[in-house]
Predict the 3D structure of the following.
Amino acid sequence: MDVKTRKITGQVIFILLALYLDGLMKWAFLNNMNTGEVMFIPQLMLMVLVMLSMRISDRRQLITYGIVFGLIYDSYYFGMIGLYTVLLPLAMVGVDHYKFLFVKANMGYEISIYFLALTFMQSGIYILERLLQQTKVDTMDFITFTLGPTLLWNMIVFFILYIPLANLSDWLVKYRRDK
Amino acid sequence: MQKFFSNKKLIILMLIIIVTFGLLAVSVNIKDKKSTPPVVQQVGNDTVSIVGGIFAYPTNAVKNASSEFSDLYNTYTENRRLKSKIGELAQNQAKLKVVQEENKKLKDELKLNATLTDYTFVNASVLSRSPSSWQSYLTINRGQTSGLKKNMPVMSGKGLIGRIIEVNKVSSKVELISTDNELNDKFASEIQGDNKNITGIVSKYDSDSGDLVMENVTSTKDVKKGQKVITSGLGGLTPRGLYIGKVNAIKKDNYGMTNSVYITPAAELRNFTVVTVIKSSVSGEK
């Protein structure tokens, strides 16, 4: 196996791990079912994908990741296809499109980009589900009880996990081309 | 027109919108109407869930251990409360056994093979919960191969927690009763009164108080706080006698027209790692 294939396998495992951790985190810690007003939604996979999008320059590869993992996410967790499958590649292409503005990736930039991507994803999902009558929550309730707590929780997680995740994604993306 | 087709971005945007709504509409329809998702999706979900099991087992172990800790914390008060009930329980168990035997004999005599109260069950362990605000789904590690079907009720140790909404070959999704959903998750149920049982439909979840709401109640005159609510077995795959919870309050709706009974669910929808899927022996019309 050449280095590139190995690195891509590493990236795929990295994303898959984050995908499972989303569901397990929700199940193990954030399982507030009896008093279910405030909703914390872990979005570790989006975190990993945003970090990889900041580092991978091949846009076709990014779109493939977005569609494949979006499809798995939709099918496994939501039971309906078309939420992450469409919104995830869009968010990643957006990050890829505007990342030239940042000369050097650092924590401040990445956290704000993740913040924007998360807001985009959650609002997109809300709008689509509302249109298809999967929920009747009104917009104010969505912002107060879902979007706010979700952003807060994920920002804290991002803050804690930034250094290991950033180093890992650096290592998973960079390789020498000479061989 | 020429100019329009040369605008690549506009065409891409249009395609994205069409694909999104097409995919969503088709998959929501399949989810609502078909009993199983398409084979490709089943295989995909099963693969993901089998691999997910590797991560789920350690998580469940930790979850069990932590709930044991919190149990330990309450042990003293709980023990005192339980001691007072234990004598009663032994008596009830003996009585139940006699009654069950008698019931079986009577059924044999009447040549009744199965009634609404007969069911078998399958145990399954929980793999994950959907990281989503409005789809409160659990993924469990049993599917069609264990004989599960869509709409079967699911219990945890103490009471009803939801029903199956999607079955794959070796995994399925459970929709929790705490979902505030218009279409699904309605349970025909009854309140066990002193003289007669009062029927209704558990159809809503009140997220402010964490109570289930029972509507279409025939009359709330005899309903008292603390009475037990069970499934009534009417209409479909749910057998009779599954414990839902206790009556907490009776409220009028916003227009003062009908009464709703608020029920505190018996199942604590938090501290469990294993669920029980109930297979009714009598299947009603679909």
Remarks:
- The CA atoms of residues 115 and 282 of chain B lie 6 Å apart.
- Chain B has two domains: 2-33, 37-73+114-281.
- Chain B touches chain A through 54 residues (CB under 8 Å).
